[in-house]
Amino acid sequence: MSDPSPPSGRFAARPALGAVACLSLLLPPFYVSAFWLQTGLFVMAAVIAAIGLNLLVGTAGQLSLGHAFFLALGAYGYTWFADAPRRSGVHELSGLSLPPVVAFVAAILLTGAAGALFSPISGRLRGMYLGVATLALVFLGHHLLLNATPVTGGFNGRTVPPMEIGGLPLDDSTPLTVLGVPFGGLERLWFFGLALVLVAWLVAHNLLRGRPGRALGALRDSEVAAAVMGIPAGRMRAAAFTLSSMYAGAGGALLALAFQRIVPDHFGLALSMDFLAMIVIGGLGSVGGAALGAVFVTVLPQALGQYADQLPLVVAPGSPEPGLAAPEAARFLYGAALVLVLLFSPGGLTALRVRARRSRPADTQAPDPITSVDRDTADGPSLKEHTP
Q1: Residues 188 and 168: beta-carbon distance below 8 Å
Q2: What confidence tier does 320 reach under pLDDT thresholds 50, 70, 90?
Q3: Domain locations in the chain as residue ranges
Q4: What is the pLDDT of residues 21-69, one digit of tens each?
């Protein structure tokens, strides 16, 4: 038997290109402005939460409209765990004064516990029925955020305590210079956010490559076939919902650190719709697709707001001139992108890459080992892969 042909240069270069891309993410704190650093932190929080929602919707086939509730629970949970009891205006605010890292982990566990409490419902319902049930969580959560004043600060919100790792606060309180560049809170949070995104990506990647991911994909493709293979449908759906909630909690806690002050209006139904747009535009069932969609939906309104005075029909906030404010213009644009994706590329942005790869001549295509997590399609783990 002849030896297999060596991998092409394109395929052999993929790990090197990936390493270069990862290293390039370490450079922005040294070169970009505070605005884009904060935008990057918003993107990282969105990527983490979008990966979690994609595990539920794209892989398990369960619709959720309540992702904003779990983001809020993570944000306010971290704030309450980490903050000390104090007075703010006319309100007495409570807190547990836990170390920030412990508070961050506790916030993730809190959202996981909330998802587990909802799991009897998420395990029994599916499709639009689960979507309607989770929709109630958003309205219930908004009511609680406005009225649980000792915990949330009510309508005025609450200041978020800074993260602290190894005695180094990730804020502007302690001067720090790295390679001649002043490292304030945003610069320090950037690396903390990158670490969280890496952990979230690896957990999702390994989960979808393993038996749980294949089982969820089989359940999504055919519940009858999954039952024949001995997959417990209710238990798997409940587990997917709980894990998705924990991802949202981590994203919400990071979002709170980026905002530095959180108010209930940040976590409304529009935020849940934004996350659904992220995973559909990026590509259902793909971890990379969730990240691409999160970047697109998060950066677009920030960029429109930053360059509103240079764009037609877009006006800066508070401007008396006729036109669209940046958030509304962004929603129009990624709404249009959503329609175009559904019409011409139902697999999302990642499916375009697959289509381009398949359109290359056969002699130029590199071997591409398919895995259940990063095939860059909207199909996710297939039933065929689960079958022994």
Answers
A1: yes
A2: confident
A3: 28-386
A4: 777 888 888 888 899 999 999 999 999 999 999 999 988 888 899 999 9
Residue 264 is given by DSSP the state G
Q: How many CB atoms lie within 10 A of CB 303?
A: 15
**Residue-by-residue DSSP string for 275-329:** HHHHHHHH-TT-HHHHHHHHHHHHHHHHHHHHTGGGSTTEE-TT--SSSEEHHHH
User: What is the C-alpha end-to-end distance of the chain, expressed in Å?
Assistant: 27
Burial class (CB in 10 A: 0-12, 13-18, 19+), 317: exposed
* Cβ contact 40:25 at 8 Å: no
Asked if residues 92 and 59 have their Cβ atoms less than 8 Å apart, the reply is no
Q: How far apart are CA 23 and CA 198, in angstroms?
A: 12
Burial of 63 (0-12, 13-18, 19+ CB in 10 A): buried
Position 203, amino acid? V
102 in Cβ contact with 164 (< 8 Å):
no
CATH no., domain 28-386: 1.10.3470
